[in-house]
């Protein structure tokens, strides 16, 4: 059973604040915070993108600064799950990672077929 709002594209303002508080108002990638650097703008990022089936729940959301968020390449990077505390990575996050790995393997096989 998914939590309320998990299928919404964006977190509600209250959900966004809950994620920012959980992450102590710091970018999970570089550690910068608006408390120490006035140029920092914080975003709440879907680790698995909503457009690719990622849900809007705590286990799939993380705080990132504007610079790190814009620098993601590819934007769909499951290695970001390793930046989350272990207790916050749910079984659903593990399932997301397994689906991504299966998808990447399928794409790799299709590319191999195109090269032949």
Give the topology:
Layout lengths: L12 H10 L19 E5 L14 E5 H6 L19 H25 L1
Antiparallel strand pairs: 1-2
Characterization of the model:
This protein has 116 residues and is mostly helical. Helix content is 35%, strand content 9%. The protein has helices spanning 13-22, 66-71, 91-115, and strands at residues 42-46, 61-65. Strands 1-2 form a two-stranded antiparallel sheet. The radius of gyration is 16 Å and the shape is globular. The protein starts with 12 loop residues before the first helix and ends with a helix.
How would you summarize what this structure contains?
With 116 residues, this protein is mainly α. It has helices spanning 13-22, 66-71, 91-115, and strands spanning 42-46, 61-65.
Task: Give the termini separation.
Answer: 44 Å
The number of helical runs is 3
**Overall radius of gyration:** 16 Å
Assess the beta-strand content as a share of residues: 5-15%
Please state how the strands of the largest beta sheet are arranged side by side.
1-2
List the main descriptive attributes of the protein structure presented here.
single chain; about 120 residues; mainly alpha; two-stranded antiparallel sheet; 2 strands; about 35% helix; globular
């Amino acid at each position: 059973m998914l939590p309320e709002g998990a299928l919404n594209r964006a977190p509600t303002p209250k959900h966004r604040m809950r994620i920012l508080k959980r992450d102590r108002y710091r970018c999970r990638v570089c550690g910068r915070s608006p408390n120490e650097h006035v140029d920092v703008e914080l975003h709440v990022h879907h680790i698995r993108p909503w457009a690719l089936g990622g849900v809007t729940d705590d286990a799939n959301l993380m705080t990132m600064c504007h610079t790190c968020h814009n620098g993601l390449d590819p934007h769909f990077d499951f290695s970001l799950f390793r930046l989350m505390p272990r207790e916050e990575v749910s079984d659903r996050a593990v399932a997301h990672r397994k689906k991504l790995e299966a998808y990447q393997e399928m794409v790799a096989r299709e590319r191999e077929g195109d090269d032949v």
